[in-house]
Amino acid sequence: MANLADAVNLVETEQTARHRRPLRINWLALAMILPSIIALLLIGLYPLLFALSLSFQRFLLNRPQNNGLFVGFENYATVLNDPLFWSSLGRTLTMLLIVLIVQIVAGIGIAVLIDSSRWRAVNWTVKTALVIPIAMTPAVVGLLGLLIFNRDFGLMNYLLGLIGIEKVNWLGDPTMAMVAIILTDIWQWTPFAALIMLSSLAIVPHDMVEAAKLDTKNSWTIFRYVKLPYLMPGITAFMIIRTADVLKLFDMPFTLTRGGPGVSTELISLYVQRMGFRIFDMGVASAQAVLLLILCIILARAYIHFFYRTPESE
Amino acid sequence: MARAENFQTGLLSSRAQKATIRRQRIPPSAWLQLALLILLLIFILTPFFWMVSTSLKEQNDTFAIPPKIIFTPTLEHYNLVLFSPSAIVPTGLQNSLIVATLTTLLALVLGTPAAYVLARFEFRGKRDLWFWFISNRFISPIVVALPFFLIARDLQLLNKPQALILIYLTFNIPLVVWLCLDQFRAIPRDLDEQAKVDGCNLFESFWRINLPLAIPGVVVSAILCFIFSWNELLFALILNRSSGQTAPVQAANFMTGFGVKWGEMMATGTLIVLPVVIFAAIVSRHLARGLTMGAIK
After folding, report:
1. Nearest to A255 among B67, B167, B251 (CB)
2. CA of A219 vs chain B CAs: smallest distance (Å)
3. What is the ipTM of this complex?
């Protein structure tokens, strides 16, 4: 595991550093950083390795007789041949693509709107309100979704009725239930995109914008060539954070649809949880989790490779 | 005296002038912006207000079409979920408070010295170590939840707050390190040199000089840790199923389907959400900074 290698690397570095130039303070520095490393090794890395070993075992919570039997890649074969795994993964990635596009575009729109508006008090109110959806407990947001997307007396159908659209069976229809989850996610997390874009816009140098205004009156051109470059790091970071969030999205869909109707909204985290704690097959669930983790690492590494800068490379 | 008066009237008139200029100058596009901002505000806040108002409605009013905006409020649902003999919400909130507070404190105790060392020392593999710290925040909880369940079962930590306090460190330590690292970097190193001259060792200069100066970053990370821990469902659902339930687990236990007690459900939801929402709104500036700080660096 790369993580373990990193940790070993640190210890070696500390030793070689001590050989090169014996500094008294290194011991104290080590003592200050070590507790957090040990904590993360114990609660982060150890369970991870545990999951890895479980994924090669037969491990049924409800029939523990043969638990611990080494089965090689059998669990992985089960997962890779499981159409439900692929459909839940496909569903999750589709949702990811939609929410990323909508939230980034809407987030930029909101940020530009606030940034260019002269209504100070309203701006301040909107900025304050933006943190509210982000802070709301996702499990409660899911419950709230049950109310708002209710077919008979939900707010959503009432509003659609006002513009003459017939009642939609949001949570009973496989497609619409997915749309309900996506809409809820958009409501909750677009403000996060807007906040990131707002603070990115704040670092656009004012005189550059003024200079550009002398050249062109087209505000789209100014946005595209002067402001957008400053938004790119924020957009990338948003993509990384939200990708991880959507791949582990559990709370809100769990209370909103429980993966239903049928398995039509079962996102990957819901499926892994069901495999582990409803079907009680920890071996297969662990294999799923390991594959999910690998996907997570590949995506994060890809984003970081293409766009992201750590504090070191500033 | 006279001059002051003069000055004041001058100021007043210039202010009045500005006001009139401003009033004259408002172009239609600004009114459009205002309309859009208000629409946005309604879009953001309506679901929240809907939850609160439903928690105060009689069941009949909940089903009303068109939805009732003006109604006679009732506290019966709150009375039921908080004070009836079978009420479980108070213990849920209490458990959440204990878990969120203690895990936040622990994350600060472990995370801030580590962030300080990372900000002040150069060593090989530091970048990898930083990345490893941060990557813990991105690991899907379901990956570690399965083994953690088995480990906690063997250590007899199921249904106890300790297990949650520890496991929440997986996302809280990275958060503290991430945000505080930035904060410590912003503190001039001269202060450390000065402290060394005064005979402070590394820890003393961290504790007495750097930490107090880094309080803004520490507070922001503490707020975020608290909110994320308060809101967490998956670990809590798997580890603390029966006793020791946190509030989000109770929210998730509301049955879906027919005969849902909407009022009680929304009253419970409001009780869970209201503390963090009020908290977040009060410190919204800092919160927005914390949420976006790592992002635009």
Report:
1. B251
2. 13
3. 0.84
